[in-house]
Design a protein that fits this description.
Blueprint: H1 5-16, E1 23-29, E2 38-44, E3 52-57, H2 68-78, E4 82-87, H3 90-93, H4 99-115, E5 124-129, H5 132-140, E6 149-155, H6 161-170, E7 172-175, E8 178-181, H7 187-196, H8 207-221, H9 233-241, H10 248-254, H11 264-281, E9 298-303, H12 311-321, E10 328-333, H13 350-365
Parallel strand pairs: 3-4, 3-5, 5-6, 6-9, 9-10
Antiparallel strand pairs: 1-2, 2-4, 7-8
Helix pairs in contact: 1-2, 1-13, 4-5, 6-7, 6-11, 7-8, 7-11
């Protein structure tokens, strides 16, 4: 019952008061097929260089390993006694999906950290955030990683590209008979547009729209604009003015002013156009067909008010894994929203949410 609780409490303390004395350094490790060593960030507990190894995948965002919330997470993780490696996937910091290369980098990172004499024997814990969550699950079944992994954690991931992309436009999502509606964060649809438009025979000529969406997503990732704040409309208006007239309607579909919603019919059309192109050219982006049986424990966690990827996607991911993963737990929480928005959960329920979150963390740390 108490297994993992001390580490969970240390993690919460480190998250709440990010003054961890973890030692941070640059890391470089070999990856088959790469001409040069791949860079990453390594954090180890102060005064204790040995410990359980963790490899943490960042999401598709310009800061990558340097994302403020990710840094806060990994410092708290190192504060529990973990040796944490965050490999930098340069494609993801350039907002490219590139799942095959990400798989290679993840395998190289796990192998390098596992074989390091300072890592505690027994396997590496792999954590994937957002876009990285399904990639971690896919990689965990690779023959090279099976003997090197102790467990997998998916945080804020997704199961179905079509549903996730549709949510980015409409905020609609569902689980069973229940329907939900959120105000979506447009960042996800910008990233899908950046990657999907060049793959579409009918849309690839709109190169200017791709560049404009890249500028918006980069500014959001670097903190220069807030995606759902009216202040971002000035940048959208400027980028729109710089586009040819023939690009305006497509740009308006992806990046309308904050107070306007895209036309539902046009949304359905663009989702149905781009998703098959991505599935064809970047098949690993859609994880369900690639999930294989796993003998290692899997822990899935998702904020319920997530505006970037809906929590129902983690429920769907859990349902797909249930028949093929003997040791699986799925938890949702009213804390730690994906896109950094403040929680709207009533104060009266916060104690209950804190206990639920603590139990989810305990289940993760019990594995180590």
């Amino acid at each position: 019952m108490w297994k993992g609780l001390p580490s969970a409490l240390r993690f919460i303390r480190g998250w709440s008061s990010p003054s961890s004395k973890a030692v941070e350094s640059a890391a470089r490790f070999p990856v088959p097929g790469e001409a040069e060593l791949v860079s990453g960030t390594m954090l180890v507990p102060a005064g204790s260089p040995s410990g359980r190894g963790w490899v943490v995948l960042h999401g598709i965002t310009r800061p990558g390993p340097r994302h403020p919330e990710l840094r806060r997470f990994v410092r708290a993780l190192a504060g529990t006694g973990g040796r944490v490696l965050v490999p930098e996937i340069s494609d993801w910091t350039e907002l490219r999906m590139a799942p095959e290369r990400a798989q290679r980098i993840l395998r190289g990172a796990v192998r390098w950290l596992h074989d390091d004499h300072a890592s505690t024997p027994g396997g590496i814990m792999v954590v994937g955030f957002s876009f990285g969550a399904p990639q971690a699950l896919i990689a965990a079944a690779h023959s090279e990683l099976v003997p090197r992994i102790r467990g997998v954690v998916g945080w804020g991931g997704y199961a179905d590209l079509h549903r996730t992309f549709r949510f980015g436009f409409t905020g609609e999502h569902e689980w069973g008979e229940k329907r939900y509606l959120e105000r979506p964060d447009p960042y996800a649809r910008w990233v899908v547009g950046i990657n999907g438009i060049p793959l579409s025979p009918s849309l690839r000529r709109h190169e200017g729209v791709v560049r404009a969406l890249y500028a918006l997503a980069a500014a959001a990732g670097e903190g220069r604009i807030q995606t759902r704040d009216p202040g971002s409309d000035a940048m959208k208006a400027r980028l729109r003015r710089e586009l040819p007239q023939g690009d305006h309607s497509l740009f308006d579909l992806f990046a309308p002013p904050v107070d306007r919603e895209p036309d539902p019919g046009e949304v359905a059309g663009i989702v149905d156009e781009l998703v098959p192109c991505i599935r064809r050219e970047l098949p690993l982006v859609d994880p369900l067909p690639w999930l294989e049986p796993l003998d290692v424990p899997v822990r899935l966690l998702h904020p319920r008010s997530d505006a970037l990827i809906p929590f129902t996607e983690t429920l769907r991911l859990g349902a797909a894994l249930e028949p093929i993963v003997p040791d699986l737990s799925v938890a949702t929480t009213g804390l730690l929203e994906h896109s950094g928005q403040p929680s709207t959960i009533p104060l009266a329920h916060r104690v209950q949410e804190n206990l639920r979150f603590l139990e989810a963390l305990r289940g993760i740390f019990a594995l180590v």
